[in-house]
Write a structure and sequence with these properties.
By secondary structure, this protein is α/β, with parallel strands linked by helices. It is built from 22 helices and 32 strands. One of its GO terms (biological process) is plant-type hypersensitive response.
C-alpha cells in the first residue's frame, strides 16, 4: 500500500511539473509572437555597426609584397588567353573559376591577373559577391566599375541586368567576380554578361568546388611551396627583401615546424608572422606560438581576422554540417582521420538522422563528408591505389577555428600534455591525448555523467576513467592507443547507450561476453586487437551495422542473425565453415571483404594430390559464394582473396554486379572466362576501382573498359599468352578519362597509347614480349609521351625467344621514352622468362601479390609454394 501511494504521488507530481513546463512554453511563444507583431507594426529595426571585412585589406597589397604567385599568375593568364588548360572557352571568350581553401590567396591571384590583362579590353570591373548579396547593389556596383553611373534607385534587378547587357553588348570586357557561394547567384550574374561579342574574360573565385565546376574552367589553387613560404614568413618578420634565411640559426628549426603547420597557406603564414614579430628572437616564445597553432588558444587581432575569414565558410554551412565539422576537434592536429570511422561516429552521435529515399544512414553521412570536402573545409586523402577516399585531414588553421568554436560551445573537452580544457565545465565529449602518469588534471575531478563520446590517443592508465562512470556514453574509441594494464573492459556491457565501440591493441585475449548486452551497438571495430575469435554473444546485436575485424579473427556461428549489417570486413572463412550460407541473410551489406583459407589443405601443399583437392574445394566454395552474392543486391565494395594463390576458372562468370558497385577486387580469387557483359559504362557508372583476372581479353573489351566514366584505378591480369592470342592492344583517344593508376599484368603484346588517352594517368605498370616486337617492324613506340600526367612507369620485358641485343634495344627504347617525357617520370625496367619468371597461371608454381581496395585497411600478403616436381 505504501508503494502504491508513493507511486501515485510521484505520478501526480510529474504531471504537475509537466503542466507547468507546458504553460511556460506557451507563454514564451506568445511573447515571441507579440514581439514580432510589434516589430512589423512599427517597422523598428536595430541597426548593427558595419563590420570591416578583413579580406578587403589583402586586396590592396602591392605587387612587390606578393610571394610565390608568379607561376599561378602565368598559368591562369595562359589559360585565359587560349593557351590551353581548364578554362571554359567558346569562340568569343573564356572563363576561369579559381577555387580553393579560405586564405589561400584566390582573390589576390585574381587581382594580379586582372591588373595584368585589363588594359587589353574596352572596359573592366572587379566586383565582390559574398555570401548574402544584395543583387541590386551588386549590379549597380558593376555598372559603376564599368564606367556607367546609375542614379535611378527605382530600377529593379531585371532592369539593371538589361542595362549591363546593353552596355557590354558591343564591348570587349574583362570582369572579376570575387567570392561566389551559390550557383544560382552565378546564373543570375551570367544573364547580364553577353557572350556574342568580339572577346571577353571572366574570372571568378569561390571556396566551393561544385560551384567552380558549374561556372566552368575550375582552376584549383595550390599552396605555396616551402621556399616561398619561408620567404614570406621571414620577410614579414624581419623585413628582409633579398635574404630569406633566418638571421638566427637557433630559430631555424622552430620556424620550419611552423611552416609545416601553415602548409603553404599565405593567410596562415602572415598571421603567424605577425605573432612572431612581437616575440623578438626568443626561441622559447616561438615554440609557444608553434604549439598553439591549431589549438584555438592564441589570441590577437591578426588571429581574430584569420578566424573571421575562415568563419565565412563555417557559418555558410547548414546546422547539421556545422556540428559534424566541430566534431573533428575530437582528433589531434595533423591526424589522418579514417573516413568510415568518422561517419560511423557521426551516426552514433545522432548527427545523421533523417534517411532520404533510397539512402541509408552511412550513405547520407557520406554525402555530409563529401560536402565538407567540396567546401574545402577538410582535405581528402585517397587510398594507396587512388580509387577511393580513405582518410581526411583538417588544416591547422581550420582546426584552430574549430577548437575555438568548440571551446565556446563546450562541445569537446581536451586533455593532453600541453594544455587542457577547464575541468569546471560539464564534460560532453572527451579527447584524451596524454601518456604522462600523474597528470595534474585527472579525470576523477570531472563531471562525467553527461559524456557522450570518449576518444583516446596515447593513453596513460591514470587518465582513463572507469567505464562504469559513464551513464549515457554513445561513442567509445580506443583504437589509437594501447590500453594500459590498469584499464579493464569488465563493465563494458553496462554501457547500454553505446552505439560505437572501437578497440585497438589490448591486453586481453578476448572481447568480454557481456558485449552482447549492447543492444543499441551499431559499430564494432576491433581491427588491430588480434582477438582469436569473437564471443558468441555478438550474434545478439541486432542493430549492428558495421563489423570490422582482423583477417585471423573467427566469427561465431549465427552471424546471419545480424540482418542490419552493412559493412563486414575482413571475414575469415575456412573450407569447413558454413558462414557462406549465413551471408545470404545479410541483404543490407554494402561492403564485404572475404579471405578464404583452406586450413586443412594447407598442411601439405607440396603434394600434387592435395593441390587437386584444393582446386575441387575452391570450385565448391565458388559455387556457394556465387549463390551468396546473388542475394546481396546492395553491394558497393567487394573484395575476395584466396590465401593459397590458386584460382579456379569461371567461378563468378554467372554473377551480375549491381549498378551501385564502386570497387571490385577478385583477381586473387578467381578467373573470369572473359570480360563480363555487365562491365560497361551504362551499368557501372560509379565504378572507381577494378582488379580482376580475365582468361581471354580482346581489343573490344579494352575499349569498353576505357569508357567507364569514374574508373580511377585498374588492375587487370590476362592469360592471352597461354591461349596464343598475340594481337596488340590500343588505348584510343578519350579512353579512361579519370584513370590515375593502371596495372596491365601479362599483356605480352605491347599496349600502345594514343594521343588523348588516359589524360590523368600517373602510375603505369605493364608487361610485354620483346620477341613480339622484334618479329614485327622492330620499333618500340608505346606512346608514353601521349600520357601528359605520367609520374611513374614500371615495365617488365619478357625475353623468351628474343636475343640479348633485342632485349637491350627494348630496354634502351623504354628508358629514352621515359627520359624524353616532359614530366621525367620515375621508371623501372625488369626482364624475365615467361616460362619461369612470368608465372603462368596453369603452373603449380605461383606467387600472390595482394591488391586490396579495402577502405578500412590494406591487406598485404606474399605467398610462395613449389611443387616436388619440376626444375624451378
Amino acid at each position: 500500500m505504501r508503494g502504491f501511494i508513493s507511486r501515485s504521488l510521484d505520478l501526480l507530481t510529474r504531471l504537475q511539473i509537466r503542466r507547468r513546463v507546458a504553460t511556460d512554453i506557451r507563454d514564451i511563444k506568445r511573447r515571441v509572437v507579440d514581439a514580432g507583431e510589434r516589430r512589423e507594426r512599427y517597422k523598428i529595426d536595430v541597426a548593427k555597426p558595419a563590420a570591416v571585412d578583413p579580406r578587403l585589406l589583402y586586396h590592396y597589397k602591392k605587387a612587390t609584397e606578393l610571394v610565390g604567385i608568379d607561376q599561378a599568375r602565368d598559368e591562369v593568364t595562359n589559360i585565359l588567353l587560349g593557351g590551353g588548360g581548364v578554362s571554359s572557352n567558346n569562340q568569343n571568350g573564356s572563363i576561369v573559376s579559381i577555387v580553393g581553401f579560405g586564405g589561400l590567396g584566390k582573390t589576390t591571384l585574381a587581382n594580379v591577373v586582372y591588373e595584368r590583362l585589363k588594359e587589353r579590353f574596352d572596359c573592366w570591373a572587379f566586383v565582390s559577391v559574398s555570401q548574402n548579396p544584395d543583387m541590386r547593389k551588386f549590379f549597380k556596383g558593376l555598372l559603376y566599375e564599368l564606367g556607367k553611373n546609375v542614379n535611378e534607385d527605382a530600377l529593379d534587378e531585371r532592369q539593371l541586368i538589361d542595362q549591363v547587357r546593353k552596355f557590354l553588348q558591343t564591348k570587349r570586357y574583362c570582369i572579376v567576380i570575387d567570392d561566389i557561394w551559390n550557383v544560382s547567384i552565378w546564373h543570375m550574374i551570367r544573364c547580364a554578361l553577353p557572350d556574342d561579342i568580339g572577346g571577353y574574360i571572366i574570372i571568378t573565385t569561390t571556396r566551393i568546388f561544385k560551384v567552380a565546376e558549374q561556372i566552368g574552367g575550375a582552376y584549383k589553387m595550390k599552396p605555396l611551396c616551402l621556399d616561398s613560404s619561408r620567404k614570406l614568413l621571414y620577410r614579414r618578420i624581419f623585413g628582409n627583401e633579398e635574404k630569406y634565411r633566418s638571421p638566427d640559426e637557433q630559430l631555424t628549426e622552430v620556424s620550419e615546424r611552423i611552416l609545416r603547420k601553415c602548409a603553404g597557406v599565405p593567410l596562415a603564414i602572415i598571421t603567424i608572422a605577425s605573432l612572431l614579430a612581437d616575440r623578438g628572437r626568443n626561441k622559447m616564445e616561438w615554440y609557444e606560438v608553434c604549439n598553439s597553432i591549431g589549438s584555438g588558444l592564441e589570441d590577437g587581432q591578426d588571429v581574430e581576422n584569420m578566424r573571421k575569414i575562415l568563419a565565412y565558410s563555417y557559418y555558410d554551412l547548414p546546422s547539421h554540417l556545422r556540428t559534424c565539422l566541430l566534431y573533428l576537434s575530437m582528433f589531434p592536429e595533423d591526424y589522418a582521420i579514417e573516413k568510415f570511422r568518422l561517419i560511423w561516429m557521426w551516426i552514433a552521435e545522432g548527427f545523421v538522422q533523417h534517411e532520404e529515399q533510397g539512402k541509408g544512414l552511412y550513405e547520407l553521412g557520406e554525402c555530409y563528408f563529401n560536402e565538407l570536402v567540396n567546401r574545402s573545409l577538410i582535405q581528402p586523402l585517397y587510398d594507396r591505389h587512388d580509387a577511393i577516399i580513405e582518410f581526411c585531414r583538417v588544416h591547422d588553421m581550420v582546426l584552430d577555428l574549430i577548437y575555438s568554436i568548440s571551446s565556446e560551445e563546450n562541445l569537446v573537452t581536451v586533455l593532453n600534455d600541453e594544455h587542457s580544457t577547464s575541468p569546471s565545465k560539464k564534460v560532453r565529449r572527451l579527447l584524451l591525448q596524454s601518456n604522462m602518469e600523474g597528470h595534474d588534471i585527472p579525470c576523477a575531478s570531472m563531471i562525467l555523467l553527461q559524456v557522450r563520446s570518449v576518444v583516446a590517443f596515447s593513453l596513460a592508465s591514470n587518465l582513463m576513467p572507469a567505464l562504469g562512470s559513464f551513464r549515457v556514453l554513445r561513442v567509445l574509441d580506443l583504437k589509437s592507443c594501447s590500453l594500459p594494464q590498469g584499464c579493464d573492459l569488465k563493465h563494458l556491457g553496462n554501457l547500454f547507450h553505446l552505439r560505437y565501440l572501437g578497440i585497438g591493441k589490448t591486453f586481453r585475449a578476448l572481447l568480454p561476453d557481456d558485449v552482447g548486452n549492447l543492444r543499441f551497438l551499431q559499430t564494432l571495430d576491433v581491427v588491430g586487437s588480434n582477438f582469436c575469435s569473437l564471443p558468441s554473444t555478438i550474434v545478439q546485436l541486432k542493430r549492428l551495422m558495421c563489423l570490422c575485424i582482423d583477417q585471423n579473427t573467427r566469427v561465431p556461428n549465427g552471424i546471419g542473425n545480424l540482418t542490419s549489417l552493412e559493412d563486414l570486413s575482413t571475414l575469415y572463412i575456412c573450407d569447413s565453415s558454413n558462414i557462406t550460407e549465413e551471408l545470404c541473410h545479410l541483404t543490407e551489406l554494402r561492403t564485404l571483404e572475404i579471405v578464404l583459407f583452406p586450413a586443412d589443405i594447407m598442411e601439405d601443399l607440396c603434394l600434387l594430390t592435395e593441390m587437386r583437392q584444393l582446386y575441387i574445394q575452391l570450385e565448391e566454395w565458388n559455387v556457394k559464394l556465387l549463390e551468396c552474392l546473388c542475394e546481396l543486391p546492395k553491394i558497393q565494395e567487394l573484395i575476395i582473396m584466396v590465401i593459397t594463390g590458386q584460382r579456379n576458372i569461371g567461378g563468378l562468370d554467372a554473377w551480375v554486379a549491381p549498378r551501385q558497385l564502386c570497387v571490385l577486387s577478385t583477381r586473387n580469387s578467381t578467373w573470369f572466362s572473359t570480360l563480363p557483359a555487365w562491365v560497361n559504362p551504362s551499368l557501372l557508372s560509379e565504378l572507381t576501382g577494378l582488379s580482376i583476372a580475365v582468361k581471354e581479353l580482346r581489343q573490344v573489351h579494352l575499349t569498353i573498359l576505357g569508357k567507364l566514366p569514374a574508373l580511377r584505378c585498374l588492375e587487370i591480369e590476362v592469360d592471352n599468352m597461354m591461349l596464343g592470342i598475340l594481337g596488340g592492344f590500343v588505348v584510343g583517344a578519350g579512353s579512361f578519362p579519370c584513370l590515375l593508376r593502371c596495372r596491365l599484368r601479362y599483356f605480352v603484346p605491347p599496349v600502345v597509347f594514343r594521343q588523348g588517352a588516359m589524360p590523368r594517368l600517373e602510375y603505369l605498370r605493364f608487361t610485354f614480349s620483346v620477341c613480339e616486337i622484334a618479329s614485327s617492324d622492330g620499333s618500340l613506340d608505346l606512346g608514353l609521351g601521349n600520357l601528359p600526367s605520367l609520374q611513374s612507369v614500371q615495365a617488365r620485358l619478357v625475353y623468351e625467344g628474343a636475343s640479348k641485343e633485342d632485349v637491350r634495344e627494348a630496354e634502351a627504347a623504354l628508358k629514352d621514352a621515359a627520359e624524353m617525357h616532359p614530366n621525367h617520370p620515375d621508371h623501372l625496367i625488369s626482364t624475365g622468362d615467361i616460362t619461369k619468371g612470368a608465372l603462368p597461371s596453369s603452373s603449380c608454381f605461383s606467387f600472390l601479390f595482394s591488391f586490396s581496395f579495402s577502405s578500412n585497411h590494406n591487406l598485404r600478403l606474399f605467398f610462395f609454394h613449389v611443387p616436388l616436381e619440376g626444375n624451378y
